[in-house]
Design a protein that fits this description.
This protein is an all-alpha fold. Helices cover 61% and strands 0% of the residues. The chain is built from six helices and no strands.
Length: 103
């Protein structure tokens, strides 16, 4: 396991669901952990409102929305995520860049 894979969330506690991130089966997923793939999958969906998405983050991933967005932001800079789902990652990068420009 590489240092950036294990150190992305910095914790192996309850929020770090799937303590074997990056191990076992990572080759067929481009080196992304199951949690990383789940984060990208949630971002591909459309949501009726912000509350539904936050609820899904807590129920499906077992992490807080704040932690979810920290992980998502790190994924947007990860070339493995771009290789796995370029449409979603590029869309989210564009949105992030637009928000930064408005500040």
């Amino acid at each position: 396991m590489s240092d950036d894979q294990g150190g992305r969330d910095g914790q192996g506690g309850p929020e770090g669901q799937g303590g074997s991130d990056g191990q076992g089966g990572s080759d067929d997923q481009g080196g992304l952990s199951e949690r990383d793939l789940a984060v990208l999958a949630l971002e591909r969906r459309s949501w009726p409102g912000p509350g539904a998405k936050e609820r899904a983050v807590r129920e499906r991933l077992g992490i807080t929305p704040t932690r979810y967005y920290q992980l998502l932001n790190a994924l947007l800079d990860d070339p493995r995520a771009l290789a796995h789902d370029p449409v979603t990652v590029n869309r989210l990068r564009r949105l992030r860049d637009e928000r930064r420009e408005r500040r």
